[in-house]
Amino acid sequence: MKHQARLVSQNAQRVLEEECSAFTAYLVGAAPSPYVKEQYTKAACAHGLAFDEDFCCFDRATLILARKGCMLARWADAYCALFHRNGSLRRKLIVLAAILEHVPPTNQAFDTVEPRHVVVASLSLAAYGCMSAVSLLGGVLVLLPASMLCWIATRSGSSMRAR
Length: 163
Known about the structure:
This protein has 7 helices and no strands. By secondary structure, the protein is an all-alpha fold. The protein has helices at residues 10-28, 34-46, 57-66, 70-83, 88-101, 107-111, 118-162. Helices cover 74% and strands 0% of the residues. Helix 1 crosses helix 5 (88-101), helix 2 packs across helix 5 and helix 3 (57-66) runs antiparallel to helix 4. The protein has one domain (10-162). The two termini are 35 Å apart.
């Protein structure tokens, strides 16, 4: 899909760079290099993901939450993975993961597999499952009310325009 070229303001550039830092910390536990930030900004522009004003109310809410830190990004991602799969947050995380997967040293987070004993692997999988369930619960507690408020705002806004 080709998106119309728009100039990225300094504010939009700053938001994308801060977002890249927050999402990189969430995905790989590290800070992004200047190259990753540059590629993320270019990819966001190329895929129509650079400007918050282009997104619906709920997409903006998920992005605001996810930009606030790793735990909140995990909550928003867990919620969106089940209930808002095609939203801007998931699309941005996929674009960033693709960039990180191909750039040293963050590619090692995707490529390295540590051999483990079956018991350790099972316990690790159980812990990861519990963490995912808690993240989903946190996401539901925060984003379900937000989705209802955005739905109400959208409905009331469209009924006001119809009058």
